[in-house]
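Take a protein:
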Amino acid sequence: MGLTVKREDWWGILLIAVIAVAFAIPLFGNAHNWSEQLDWDTAVMAHASTARNIGEYGQLPFWDAYSCGGNVLYAHPNYDHISPFVVLDLLFGEVVGIKLKILLFFVLGSIGAYLLARHFGAEVIPSMLAAAIFTLNGKYAQSFMIGQVLWTPLMYVPWLFLCFVKSDKQPKLSLVAAVLMALLVFEAVPYIFPMTIVLLLCFAGSTWLLRKDKRYLKPALLIILLGVALSAVRVLPMYDVFKDNSRQLGLDPNDHNSLYEMVNVFTNNAHTQPDWDPYWRLVDGKPSWYEYSFFIGWPAFILLLLALLLYLRSPLGATAVVFLGIMFGTTLPVWPLLHLFPLFSSQHNIIRYGMVFMLLAGVLVAR
């Protein structure tokens, strides 16, 4: 019952945990240093302000007194600092705390992806490949290097999805998934929370349409609604901020990704490409390599294409295709339709939906 682990899985879990730690170890070569590039200053400021509010003043982190003459902190929608992992900042300082959270992303995200692949019938070694495709693709090393630590809550998504797909036989796991959904609201509202809504609804809808099976519809709605209810103490203040400072974007013309560009996303290491600006933007105006590289190489990419073709008419395969369609941006109609809905209308750099796609892709390849 629950998320029990079979005996034969322990060595696989141990091995992928060791690989994940080895992958993240370079972060600690200069443990107390942080990069001068892009978002590190913003991330450190948010974590430090939160830790100072709690540790020095003994109060909840409602207000950031250090940024731009003062700014909202608890209600700010774009930081990952309102988190159980704030204890790492209090114990080790914000720079080491952030790096430890990144380490936990690689370890817990890898284990979650492994167990998800095992649930869908993959063997031990292929399930390890699923974990690698999800966490060790080119996206995260490059994003974390420039300080985009707001992606660390993705570690919850494989666990949330695993609880969701098990909830048909173990309804109590819906409550666990709802708690994880609430954590996503606390830590990652602008992108990961909406992505997870799409993930649950697409899988439930695909199961209904392809298998004539409605069993996941109610759990999906329950998890989403209960997750929002559990996080209402953060949702309501954030709503006030959104209401007064809304960012209603039109469809970004840079979110137009051709087939050629999408192949490059998975097969080209950005650092080897002469037309990629190593600091900010591509020559054609698209966001830079830390957004567009989900590098897995040609062998894994070919396996991915074969898996998509093989499982196209399965709920998991159909859900993966929807996420892939979103990644194409305005080239296909999927994203323009989704962009019509509240919250999604404030998003751009839509290639980021590839973070959830890589989880689904890894599981499909493992099967």
Observations:
- Residues 94-119 form the longest helix (26 residues).
- The chain has a mean pLDDT of 88.
